[in-house]
């Protein structure tokens, strides 16, 4: 029964995605990479949320909350503030330049070498951290929900290889041959399913604890496990409180403001107004996020008495324990869609970056649009195979996959955010300064985190490095300044009149976040 509803829903999404993209021009790079700049607010919001909300998030964050309680929700809630910042400050600047990728903006601002270094960092980040964690967490969820190791008569780790490769092959076909429009449409359908399905899990979970009454369940849970609901994380927590003002801001501002896989959605906006509406709508929904990505982990802790071998299995175990059988197939299909979505988006962005920033730039300068798209596709296949090879090796990684992912991401998030922000707000900082600062940041971060291993949260380390990286940029520019002041020209490709309700809505979202923290402390 579960398997049947799984297959039916998955096929339905594929048919709708095919039907709605059959008229898009996929041969031009604007059509393939930016959906022809036609996206409206609700589509952007849905695609932003679903690209972000995937199994590594749902499985990984609930794994952390199983172990550590509610402080991990900072990743969700601070995101709302970062999206408001992007809508107010960054998006108007990007759309003014009419860019397709963040590295293009950096090329206009700093020069070719900076663009190449950053493209390389993005690609390495996708290959080593994002694509493998998406595949691993997705495979883990599906294996646990459907008892696949038992039905194949294999152990958990061997089954992981089978599931990872199955998901990877299906995802690659979608991403490499469909382009952004196919990815964005299937995202929007799955987003609805994920938000509905994701909300059912904590509701059914609380009903199970409270004998059919959600509020009684919540009361039982907060009374039994008060320590899990203290939002001010202690020094041993995954998110100590003061990191909210250091690394947490950097992680989120980088992710929602400068990460190609995410911002590509907003760059495809019809005009600035729709882009801002999409970002703020997504920010509002983000505040409700902890209900889906944090609470089930605490419910799991209560139901299983805190006794699970691998904390990353907390979420799929809860789904199996509380969802009626008929729903499990539907929910697994939605999760499967979310896995494909994140995998596709990172793959689609990698193909875009490689095609435009490496192939056309260094390998074949006179390539036609069709050749660029083709070269990108071949690269996508290689990258997909590589990440399918790494993913199963993450089994039982210490501290859970979510923390593994965030730690590795610091390698590129700190320098990229620093050079984008300095690039927007200063006129004199030079390309040479940016390049030196990036190399300093990457090398220092990796050595400090993996060799010196200091006794502070990696989030604080990111905060300190961010400040140092910016200082280095200004110091080096004193000796090697730009020849002329940078001035951004308006390409007139996109209408950049801001949304008239931008300020009141933006301020309301920030007030809501602060209110939530005060209430939960």
From TrEMBL:
Swiss-Prot/TrEMBL keywords: Membrane, Transmembrane, Transmembrane helix
UniProt GO molecular function: D-glucose:sodium symporter activity
A GO CC term assigned to this protein in UniProt: plasma membrane
Protein name (database record): Solute:Na+ symporter, SSS family
Membrane topology designation: Multi-pass membrane protein
Family: Belongs to the sodium:solute symporter (SSF) (TC 2.A.21) family.
Any Pfam family hit: SSF
UniProt feature coiled coil, ranges: none
PROSITE patterns for this protein: NA_SOLUT_SYMP_3
Gene3D superfamilies: Sodium/glucose cotransporter
Compartments where located: Membrane
Bilayer-crossing regions: 72-95, 116-139, 159-177, 189-209, 239-257, 278-305, 317-340, 378-397, 409-426, 433-452, 458-480, 501-520
Predominant cellular place of this UniProt entry's protein: membrane
